[in-house]
Batch of 2 targets.
Target 1
Amino acid sequence: MAKVIAIDGPSGSGKSSTSRRVADRLGFLHVDSGALYRIMTWQCLARGVDTTDPAAVAACAESVGVECRPEGGAIAYYVEGEAPGNRIRTPEINAHASHVATVKAVRDRVTAILRGMTAQGDLVVEGRDITTAVFPDSPARFYLTASAEARALRRQREEVAKGIANQSAEAVKASLLARDAIDSTRKYAPLKKADGALEIDSTELTLDQVVETVLAALPPDWKK
Ligand code: DC
């Protein structure tokens, strides 16, 4: 059976960098589950769907074909043969993704896609409901947090470095807190710390320290 390391947390908590590094160290595949919600959002917007209309969002999400293939140590996604790239990382997608992620049909579809990936190998999966709903039985579950200021600063620097946007840290913080509120209060699979998950506050920690904390907490026979 495939081993799954599950990592949840709000935006900017360090999930992506940590998951990528942990996957790299262990030779597991890195899985960005948020990208699947972003792809669904991108496709809704491209087709003119109102993202606050759950029935319309569900119908659109069901028709999106997503191909998932292992590539360079991660699961890469393709929609109609094309990699979405930074088109799913814009402030517009940020603003709509939380709404799309509240729709049960979308969550069910993404959950099924994620569970199916265990056929591809051992995984490090990051998201909001991985420890609570997608892989709640994994013996390696983590909840990453950081202060809102630290998270906003990280995201803002990332947007500038990748040339995605040039928003102020304040604007990034406002958008991030708005998304946190929707993600943690929604009806289906809200973001919360799972019972039994190890909480790591990364505000004052380096990436290396967070990675080492995760590796140290894994079942002994999972480590290389
Ligand atoms: O991690 P991210 O910012 O790329 O996530 C994009 C959106 O998808 C965000 O609003 C939270 C949502 N999401 C979710 O509901 N469940 C997941 N497992 C991952 C992301």
Target 2
Amino acid sequence: MKIGIFDSGYGGLTILEKIVEKLPQYDYIYLGDNARTPYGSRSFEVVYQYTLQCVKKLFEMDCQLIILACNTASAEALRNIQQADLQRIAPSRKVLGVIRPTVEKVDEMTASKTVGLFGTSGTVQSKSYEIEIAKLFPHITVVSEACPIWVPLIENNEHTKLGADYFVKQHIDRLLEKKCEIDAVILGCTHYPLLVKKIEKYLPQNIKIITQGKLVAESLENYLFRHPEHENLCTKNSTVEFFTTESVEKFVSSASIFLKQKIQAKKVFLG
Ligand code: DGL
């Protein structure tokens, strides 16, 4: 059986890359719901329904374990899927998110105990980061800024162009206006690592940037170690298959830029 990595579009590739680097032995299926991206500006109910549909598809494709490599889906759909749907649709399988592995490392990244969060409107409105951080580190203050334009810039491959600078700087300035003690900032959207060069350009140097790929990969390794009932079922032929709900040609050309290698993909129909 395989490990499924799901995102609304290309963003989850930043997570997949780090997971495959750390755990190359497993078989992976990546599913991007590119036809319906972005999720970040959609309602809670819609994000939940879309995510559930993709999770069911990945189970049909023989995934034992699924990582929602999407903060919006992790924030708005994960809890419902874990608590209400999993028991009904696949009681012996597992769905994990990207917020918890990130939150667990936050305390060691901040001296001022004030962290910034960049995320989609959905992630920011859900307050998932504030809630999870308060459970583990109640002394940390979270200041968030929704960046609704960043994902479309990336999905349309405009993120390296000059026009992107304006929108990156705008949201950094807005975040820092809210609280200047911030000394670390979470890129709480799996798309955002693709903007990291521009973020570094406008963010003061004393502010650390927390990206999720490595943290999620470490957390998955740890999870598989602690759960042999899942690990033993995962096949180990070092394969990665890519699926998209959009056109294959479009996915392959953009995904290849993000992964810096040529890949093949197949179209998937969600029923
Ligand atoms: N990559 C996603 C995230 O981490 C979602 C972006 C979107 O579809 O709006 O939030």
